[in-house]
From TrEMBL:
Organism: Botryosphaeria dothidea
Lineage start: Eukaryota, Fungi, Dikarya, Ascomycota, Pezizomycotina
Residue stretches in coiled coil: none
Organism domain of life: Eukaryota
InterPro entries assigned: AhpD-like (IPR029032), PTS1_Protein (IPR052999)
Name of this protein: Carboxymuconolactone decarboxylase-like domain-containing protein
Compositional bias ranges of the Pro residues kind: 69-81
Annotated region described as Disordered, given as residue ranges: 56-87, 127-159
Length: 294
């Protein structure tokens, strides 16, 4: 059974209590956002955003059980965040996803972005769809989406031996240190291309970018996104990276427990393809489902 957004407030409350003082307060929503998306629950990003900012969906409806009895009201959300606070949370979650796609892939992240966008519209924070040319400035998140200056800059050059590449290399060396050459050597004949991908794109353009999130906040995304996939080797690399950023052993352990709480709350990771008999036949049937839209 998928986790219910109705119980998100309890999870977030537990996380806020468990996080040590050395960890940024933003981790109280960055960690569950990253972990739940990696677990295969990207549709929870919208409800998470609404609860964290204290906004409610203007399209929410009341549900009753089979006896016509309404469910108990959910815990009261925090006070509605100010426009500045709302924009900050929105930007933090956006940057979380812009970084996390390098760890878990685009499909989950795009689904999470759609959930986030829908929540912002439902709460009246962004113009609804379809939207006429923007004219009002009453929306907390602005009248239209605009490309971040760091991506519009002509200086965004992903070639080797550029500023972006150098920034990526510096970030990787900080986390991996003497272990880096041995790790890259395992890539064999593919090392050169994947080294460029790591240094210029994954780290250079995204994970080393501190325009919105700090180096520590970014490391929380990498650790949670990887651990949620059950990948021990890369998890060890980035747990070591947290320690090298100055986070104490006890506080890193506390972060891991928070990730574990998110995994437990979600009921584990959503399963994908199983190879079961008839599974491919089900996929074939999807072709017919879209035929009328071709």
């Amino acid at each position: 059974m998928p986790p219910s957004p109705q119980t998100l407030p309890a999870l977030l409350s537990k996380i806020r209590t468990a996080l040590p003082a050395s960890i940024p307060k933003s981790a109280a929503y960055i960690l569950p956002a990253s972990t739940l998306t990696a677990l295969g629950h990207p549709n929870l990003l919208g409800p998470l955003f609404l609860h964290v900012t204290g906004h409610s969906s203007t399209t929410a409806t009341s549900h009753h059980d089979q006896h016509g009895i309404p469910p108990p009201p959910p815990p009261s959300p925090p006070r509605p965040a100010s426009p500045e606070e709302t924009r900050a949370v929105s930007l933090h979650l956006r940057d979380t996803l812009l970084k996390e796609w390098t760890l878990i892939g685009i499909p989950l992240v795009i689904t999470a972005v759609a959930s986030l966008g829908a929540a912002e519209r439902e709460a009246g924070l962004f113009p609804p769809l379809p939207s006429s040319p923007p004219s009002a400035s009453s929306y907390a998140l602005g009248p239209q989406s605009e490309l971040s200056p760091r991506y519009a800059s002509p200086d965004l050059n992903l070639s080797p031996n550029t500023d972006v590449h150098a920034r990526g290399v510096s970030h990787i060396v900080t986390l991996y240190r003497q272990h880096l050459p041995a790790i890259m050597a395992t890539w064999g004949s593919h090392e050169a291309d994947f080294r460029w991908l790591e240094e210029s794109v994954i780290y250079g353009a995204f994970l080393s970018d501190r325009e919105v999130l700090s180096e520590l906040e970014t490391s929380l995304i990498t650790v949670s996104g990887i651990m949620a996939q059950g990948l021990k080797g890369p998890s060890l690399w980035h747990l070591r990276g947290l320690r090298r950023l100055g986070v104490s052993k006890g506080d890193v352990e506390a972060v891991v427990r928070v990730i574990g709480e998110c995994v437990k709350w979600a009921g584990g990771r959503v399963t994908g393809a199983t190879g079961a008999e008839g599974e491919a036949d089900d996929w074939v049937s999807w072709v017919g489902e879209v035929e009328s839209e071709v």
